Amino acid sequence: MAAIQMTKNQQMAVEASGCPLLVSAAAGSGKTAVLSERALRLLTKEHPVSADRLMIVTFTTAAAEEMRRRIADKLSDAVRSHPKDANLRRQQMLLARAQISTIHALCASLVRDHFAELGLPGEMRIGDTARLDILRKEAAEEVILSHYEAEDASFLSLVEYYCADRNDSILADLMLRLYTYIRSFAFPKAWLSDALSMYEADLRTSEWVKELCVGVCDSASYAVFLMKKALDEMAGSNLFEKYAPSFQDDLAYFESVHAAAEQNDLDAVAGLSSSHKKTKLAPARAPIDPDFADQMKTLRQEAYKAVDGQLALLFDTEESTFPLERHEKDRQILLPQIRTLFSLTEELYEKIDEKKRAENLLDFSDLEHFSVQLLARKTEKGIEPTPLALSLRETVDELMVDECQDISEVQDTIFRMLSKDEKNLFMVGDVKQSIYRFRQAMPELFITRRERYEPYPPKTDTGALILLEKNFRSRDVVCEMTNGIFSQIMKKHTAEIEYDESEYLVPGASYFEHPEAVCEVLIADGTEDDEGETVSSMEREADMIAKKIRALYESRYLVKDGDSTRPLRFGDIAVLMRSPRNTAEVFANAMRKAGIPCLSTANDAFFTAYEVAVVRAFLRAAENPLDDVSLVSVMLSPIGGFDADQVTAVRLLRKDAPLYTALFAAATEEENVRCKTLLERLDLIRQKSLSDGVHAAVLELYLRTELPKLVYAFGDGEKKEENLKQFLQIAKQFEEFSSGGLTGFLHYLDRAEESGVTFDGNKTLDAHIDSVRILSIHASKGLEFPICIVASCAKRFSDQDLKRDYQMNASLGFSMKTYVRSELRGYVSLPMAAVRSKNRRELVAEEMRLFYVALTRAKEKLIFSMCEKNAASKLSRAALMAVSACPHAYEVCRAKSYSDWIYSVLLRQPQNVFGDLQPSVLVPHTDKQLPVRVTIDSARDTNEEEAQTHVSASPDDQMCTLLKERIAFLYPDAVLPSLPVKVTATELSKREADTIRLSERPRFLMDAGLTPAERGSALHAFMQFADYTAAASDLETEIARLCEKQYLTQAQCDALNRRAIGRFFSSKLYERMCHAQFLKREYSFIYEVSPELVAKEAYEIKEPIMLQGIADCVFKEEDGIVIVDYKTDYVTEESELRERYAMQLAIYKEAIAAQFSLPVKECLLYSLHLGRAIDACK
Question: Residues in domain UvrD-like helicase ATP-binding (predicted)?
Answer without folding.
Answer: 4-475
